[in-house]
Specification:
Layout: H1 17-28, H2 33-40, H3 44-57, H4 74-77
Helix pairs in contact: 1-3
């Protein structure tokens, strides 16, 4: 109906470490999670995962991936 279907629709990107540190600083100033969701335009799950990463590991960088790395990327598989 007038919409073009695209096969190269990207998955949601990771939050940058700068955005994660901004989320943590706002969270530590007692701002509630729903307000953080609207401010940073991130999902509620991403906000909670960032907070839990900070509580458990005290880092804002991405954790190493588990399992064996893929040989082909998603684009190369097509």
């Amino acid at each position: 109906f007038g919409l073009e279907i695209s096969g190269n629709c990207a998955r949601k990107q990771e939050l940058s470490s700068e955005m994660r540190s901004a989320i943590i600083s706002k969270y530590e100033t007692r701002i509630k999670v729903p307000a953080l969701v609207t401010k940073f335009h991130a999902s509620r799950t991403a906000i909670y995962n960032t907070i839990n990463r900070w509580k458990n590991h005290h880092i804002v960088q991405s954790l190493p991936r588990s399992g064996q790395p893929e040989v082909l990327s998603r684009c190369e598989k097509r």
